[in-house]
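User: Let's play a game. I give you a shape written as tokens, and you guess the letters that built it. Ready? Here's round one.
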């Protein structure tokens, strides 16, 4: 079984007897149902799982459920022999977005405290925006993502001790030993190929067959495009068009959305595609990175919504679309191939999974920096530049950025393939895989969690 950090959070939620119902939100195929099923079955003698997609496509038992009495009646007809009380019975409502009225009903089910509940949703971000009676005070929304780099390393038996050693190097600004660096870079490059979708990771562990891994990734990519037609019929063609454009856009220098290219119509602006972009972000299949030209802490106060980059939610899907089964560019350093897009995708995945909102710096005078995040320790902004080649000391925009007095920047970060940790002119140079330690939220003791 794949180790997922979120399992600890779910266990803690039930152990603490929270007065809110946990709702796990995230894109499809990232392992939400599996991890809830695993934890729920382990902690509750009576675990009842109800897949609401299957119900909607079949008998529709819950379609007209509006009250708690209705809910209990239908539930007892399906699982009456497994229902006891809230201490030993967990009801798992999988894909709850299929029946939005059940989201509203959660408040009253929690008040009754007849059973314990947990829910999940694949397109929950969309449903939450469209449903006006969401019981925000009664639910706790927990976002889930594909396996991050640390989870991928653990899945491949790199070991907690190695990760702990690397964390110590990061904390003390000491370069890792060369053999450890080489091993981590080896696995990082395989992460570029496999990504974090559980089915792809399991296939890699079981067979290492790149063709089969790519088949899984293409199926998930096509599934995401197909979901758009089901949940937003009016705008589906534009959503799919934007989604299919992303790999080619990310392979370009600027990487941001060019709205006139979406339908090849001059004069098109961000405002013309608000709903489509909103879908791609709130469905969890892309990670939004918003532009900022004059940063200040906190960054949300400075964002410019009309300049936007959208990274795919999984680097394996991106590398599949860019390179197919030819993995040589991902494993070897080829000067003719720019891997900036896939390296940046990993960084976006890591930062987002740690709870950061993503921004980038775009200033006509000073240039562009790949990522900005809030530095909560320094109450400042942390700029991050990602380098996939050997010229990692060349970063004119970042150097100018950290020296703008009005920004009050304490340091910048460069991530690259180098094995050295060093500081030069207020720039901290780190090996690319140490992105898994970057960012204050959620990283404390993350590498010491035992399965």
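Assistant: Ready! My guess for every position:
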């Amino acid at each position: 079984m794949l180790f997922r950090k979120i399992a600890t959070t779910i266990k803690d939620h039930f152990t603490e007897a929270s007065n809110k119902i946990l709702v796990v939100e995230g894109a499809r195929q990232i392992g939400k149902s599996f991890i809830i099923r695993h934890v729920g079955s382990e902690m509750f003698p009576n675990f009842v799982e109800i897949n609401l997609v299957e119900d909607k496509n079949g008998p529709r038992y819950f379609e007209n459920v509006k009250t708690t009495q209705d809910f209990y009646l239908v539930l007892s007809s399906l699982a009456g022999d497994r229902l006891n009380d809230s201490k030993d019975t967990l009801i798992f409502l999988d894909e709850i977005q299929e029946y939005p009225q059940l989201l509203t009903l959660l408040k009253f089910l929690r008040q009754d405290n007849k059973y314990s509940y947990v829910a999940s949703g694949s397109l929950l971000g969309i449903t939450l925006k469209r449903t006006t009676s969401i019981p925000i005070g009664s639910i706790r929304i927990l976002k889930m993502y594909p396996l991050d780099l640390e989870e991928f390393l653990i899945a491949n038996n790199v070991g907690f001790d190695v990760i702990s050693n690397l964390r110590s190097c990061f904390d003390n600004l000491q370069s890792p030993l060369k053999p450890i660096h080489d091993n981590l870079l080896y696995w990082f490059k395989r992460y570029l190929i496999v990504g974090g979708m559980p089915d792809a990771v399991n296939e890699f562990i079981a067979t290492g067959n790149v063709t089969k891994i790519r088949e899984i990734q293409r199926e998930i990519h096509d599934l995401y495009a197909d979901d758009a037609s089901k949940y937003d019929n009016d705008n589906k063609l534009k959503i799919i068009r934007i989604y299919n454009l992303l790999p080619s856009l990310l392979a370009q220098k600027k990487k941001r959305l060019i709205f006139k290219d979406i339908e090849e119509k001059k004069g098109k602006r961000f405002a013309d595609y608000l709903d489509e972009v909103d879908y791609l972000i709130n469905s969890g299949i892309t990670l939004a990175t918003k532009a900022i030209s004059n940063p200040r802490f906190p960054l949300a106060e400075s964002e410019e919504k009309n300049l936007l980059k959208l990274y795919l939610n999984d680097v394996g899907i991106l590398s599949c679309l860019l390179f197919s089964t030819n993995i040589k560019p991902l494993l070897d350093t080829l000067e003719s191939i720019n891997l900036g897009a896939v390296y940046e995708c990993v960084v976006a995945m890591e930062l987002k999974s740690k709870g950061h909102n993503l921004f980038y710096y775009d200033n006509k005078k000073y240039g562009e920096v790949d990522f900005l995040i809030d530095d909560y320790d320094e109450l400042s902004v942390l700029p991050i530049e990602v380098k996939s080649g050997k010229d990692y000391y060349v970063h004119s925009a970042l150097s100018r950025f950290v020296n703008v007095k009005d920004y009050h920047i304490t340091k910048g970060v460069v991530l690259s393939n180098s094995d050295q940790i060093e500081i030069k002119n207020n720039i901290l140079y780190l090996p690319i895989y140490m992105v898994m330690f970057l960012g204050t939220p959620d990283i404390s003791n993350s590498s010491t969690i035992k399965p």
